[in-house]
């Protein structure tokens, strides 16, 4: 049975693939799964039909038979656990890959997300410059540590895993900030992720949705 995910009918990122359905699409593509997409407007996110799928009224969600999931990390883990390609078979290597998934979402994503949010919500506030400095210092601290750990390796722990998939989607949100370029090995790491055929398929699919909304269908 094909899973169905939800995504924005018109993503505010203008088709850059920065919304969190992108990581789910990418995981589905990496594992060779066909899927359906149900598009949602912002207002539809708070309607009962969507709240029944997602208690916080967000995208993405994932439906497969009688299973409904929300939280992009949980959805990627579910896909990775049920299909080959995103988690190693060896139990310890698998645990380490899952550790990187949590690292991406719990340690690296929060300051990256907060910076994006501050740029939207706090730009006119008197504390904006100071807040941005604090957030960018936090991000640089994480990038420095991640860059040191990655070193010259291709991926974070051996072969490409769901940990890399999530980390690359998080780091992509720094494009255009100049911060990613300060750690050239991380910029190359993101480029390697984006060069994967599965990433490209996922990216093109979300871009097609955005373009279709922009041209009126
Ligand atoms: N922790 C949840 C998860 O990982 O699934 C967070 C989900 C989430 O934040 N969803 C956002 C959403 O539905 C879309 S992805 N927001 C609507 C709401 O909360 O009312 C976040 C996002 C939005 C826009 C951009 N952008 O324009 O670049 C990037 C990311």
TrEMBL record:
<protein>
    <submittedName>
        <fullName>Glutathione S-transferase family protein</fullName>
    </submittedName>
</protein>
<dbReference type="InterPro" id="IPR004045">
    <property type="entry name" value="Glutathione_S-Trfase_N"/>
</dbReference>
<dbReference type="InterPro" id="IPR036282">
    <property type="entry name" value="Glutathione-S-Trfase_C_sf"/>
</dbReference>
<feature type="domain" description="GST C-terminal">
    <location>
        <begin position="90"/>
        <end position="217"/>
    </location>
</feature>
<dbReference type="InterPro" id="IPR036249">
    <property type="entry name" value="Thioredoxin-like_sf"/>
</dbReference>
<dbReference type="InterPro" id="IPR040079">
    <property type="entry name" value="Glutathione_S-Trfase"/>
</dbReference>
<dbReference type="InterPro" id="IPR010987">
    <property type="entry name" value="Glutathione-S-Trfase_C-like"/>
</dbReference>
<feature type="domain" description="GST N-terminal">
    <location>
        <begin position="8"/>
        <end position="87"/>
    </location>
</feature>
<dbReference type="Pfam" id="PF02798">
    <property type="entry name" value="GST_N"/>
</dbReference>
């Amino acid at each position: 049975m094909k899973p169905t995910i939800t995504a924005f009918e018109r993503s505010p990122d203008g088709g850059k693939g920065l919304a969190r359905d992108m990581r789910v699409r990418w995981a589905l593509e990496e594992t060779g799964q066909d899927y359906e997409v149900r598009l949602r407007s912002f207002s539809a996110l708070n309607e009962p039909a969507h709240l029944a799928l997602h208690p916080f009224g967000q995208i993405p969600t994932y439906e497969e038979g009688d299973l409904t999931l929300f939280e992009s990390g949980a959805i990627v883990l579910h896909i990775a656990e049920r299909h080959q390609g995103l988690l190693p078979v060896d139990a310890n290597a698998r645990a380490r890959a899952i550790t990187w998934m949590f690292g991406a979402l719990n340690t690296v994503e929060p300051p990256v997300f907060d910076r994006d949010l501050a740029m939207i919500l706090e730009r006119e506030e008197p504390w904006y410059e100071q807040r941005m400095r604090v957030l960018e210092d936090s991000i640089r601290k994480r990038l420095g540590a991640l860059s040191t750990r990655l070193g010259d390796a291709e991926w974070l722990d051996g072969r490409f895993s769901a940990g890399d998939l999530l980390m690359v989607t998080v780091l992509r949100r720094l494009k255009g900030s100049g911060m990613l370029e300060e750690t050239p090995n991380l910029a190359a790491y993101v480029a390697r992720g984006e060069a994967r055929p599965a990433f490209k398929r996922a990216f093109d699919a979300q871009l097609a949705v955005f373009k279709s909304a922009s041209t009126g269908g």
